[in-house]
Write a structure and sequence with these properties.
The complex is a heterodimer of chains A (200) and B (213).
Chain A: E1 6-7, H1 11-22, H2 27-52, H3 62-71, H4 78-100, E2 107-110, E3 116-120, H5 121-136, E4 143-147, E5 151-156, H6 166-180, E6 187-192
Parallel strand pairs in A: 5-6
Antiparallel strand pairs in A: 2-3, 4-5
Helix pairs in contact in A: 5-6
Chain B: H1 6-32, H2 34-58, H3 66-88, E1 97-102, E2 120-124, H4 125-137, E3 142-152, E4 155-164, H5 170-188, E5 190-191, E6 194-198, H6 202-206
Helix pairs in contact in B: 1-2, 4-5
The chains are: A alpha+beta (200), B alpha+beta (213).
């Protein structure tokens, strides 16, 4: 950086970007929950205003509904009550899990001097698959790479009669991962299938 | 890079979720446990009496419980406004100014300025975005690119999203994009915060892998 440039970038900002990119913001769940709650509130508001001006109820007689709640579990078929309760339990469990779980995205943070760099796992997998394919000397369809946060799994189906050097594949994949510099370095598993495929 | 209120999102989701869990669990308990049902049979009329008492207390003269319904409506309206504000807060934070110096700049960004000098210089976000995007789209190993400017703690920052073709090594893309960003630093004179997002969009997935490199 030359001295006449104004530096506005800080390491804190960079690490904040990376942290926020690696985790879900729960924006979609929030918007869906918000819209559902708003529609419920709008219906109640409408009914309340109708009552306030002394009109007939529109969709829901609030007073009758409250009276029904007070008489539970009578007045409602048990099957309906069970179904509604289970539905509420399921929705509640999903929302609580969304709130509590870290919500990690399938992405990797990559060290870079200038910027915060975040790579989708799918991009890493396709790059590794290409390196593995070249090292094994097989067609793209014969290689399957699965990447997790701590593990990389390379599955190779060799061409019939042409042996695949698993160590060479492992070295190629390790080299690609090393250049990317993902921390911590994932564990690499190379699986060469026993049966080959015919001439690709 | 946006200012989505992440903690608030999680708190509200947890509160709504716990309320749903509580209502669902009590519904099941009323059916399954006779003692719970008898307890509710005891308590419910008392709650009903309390509501009736409130209603008679707030009804004036000839009115038929108008006040109570009006206040219920007001509370609901407040709740709706809060929920709308919550939804509107998601994904905010884009800005249209990359850098501004001189008198037209916002107070926080008048850096390195001789306040006595008349005039001002503004670099719009579109200028920086298009310069970077044009440079990115020249590359054949990228299926697409998008650049946007976001305000991060009072400072404009760039979000660069690139979609490499299948099999392109991400470290090469990262190095190349950061080189272009450094070129942009030199051109604009600002070293802004940058986020490079190397993603696998639908377009990158559908296009063919690059055969020659």
């Amino acid at each position: 950086m030359s001295p006449d440039q104004l530096d506005r970038s800080t390491p804190e900002a960079t690490s904040r970007f990376v942290r926020r990119e690696l985790h879900s913001s729960r924006a979609v769940a929030s918007v869906v929950t918000g819209v559902l709650l708003i529609s419920g509130c709008l219906l109640l508001l409408f009914e309340a205003v109708l009552r306030a001006v002394g009109d007939e109820p529109f969709l829901l007689d609030v007073e009758a509904a409250v009276a029904l709640l007070g008489r539970l579990p009578d007045g409602v078929p048990p099957s309906l009550l069970v179904a509604a309760s289970l539905l509420l339990l399921a929705v509640g469990a999903v929302l609580v899990l969304l709130a509590v779980l870290p919500g990690r995205r399938a992405r990797y943070a990559v060290p870079n001097e200038r910027a915060a760099v975040v790579v989708d796992a799918e991009v890493v997998a396709s790059s590794l698959a290409r390196r593995a394919r070249v090292a094994a000397g097989v067609a793209p369809e014969q290689v399957l790479v699965t990447v997790g946060r701590r593990t990389v799994r390379v599955q190779v189906r060799p061409t019939s009669g042409v042996p695949v050097d698993a160590d060479a594949v492992r070295a190629a994949v390790a080299d690609d991962l090393g250049r990317l510099g993902v921390e911590p370095a994932p564990r690499i598993t190379v699986l060469v299938a026993d049966t080959g495929v015919v001439g690709q | 890079m946006n200012t989505t209120p992440r903690l608030l999102n999680r708190i509200v989701l947890a509160v709504v979720g716990l309320m749903a869990l509580a209502v669902g669990a009590s519904g099941l308990l009323l059916l399954a446990l006779p003692s719970a049902a008898s307890w509710w049979r005891d308590v419910a009329p008392r709650i009903g009496d309390a509501i009736d008492g409130l209603r008679t207390g707030t009804t004036l003269g000839e009115q038929s419980d108008t006040m109570l319904w009006t206040s219920v409506a007001a509370v609901l309206l407040l709740l709706i406004v809060l929920l709308v504000l919550w939804i509107a807060a998601q994904g905010k934070g884009r800005t249209g100014v990359f850098a501004a110096v001189g008198r037209s700049g916002p107070p926080g960004q008048r850096d390195g300025v001789d306040e006595a000098t008349p005039g001002s210089v503004t670099i719009t976000a579109a200028a920086a975005e298009q310069a970077l995007k044009a440079a990115l789209l020249e590359r054949s190993d990228l299926a697409g690119a998008s650049v946007s400017t976001w305000e991060v703690r009072g400072v404009p920052g760039l979000r660069v999203r690139v979609y490499p073709r299948k099999g392109v090594p991400p470290y090469a893309v990262a190095a190349e994009v950061s080189r272009l960003v450094e070129a942009l630093d030199t051109v604009t004179g600002y070293r802004t915060p940058v986020l490079i997002n190397i993603s696998s969009g639908a377009r990158a997935r559908l296009t063919r892998a690059e055969r020659v490199s």
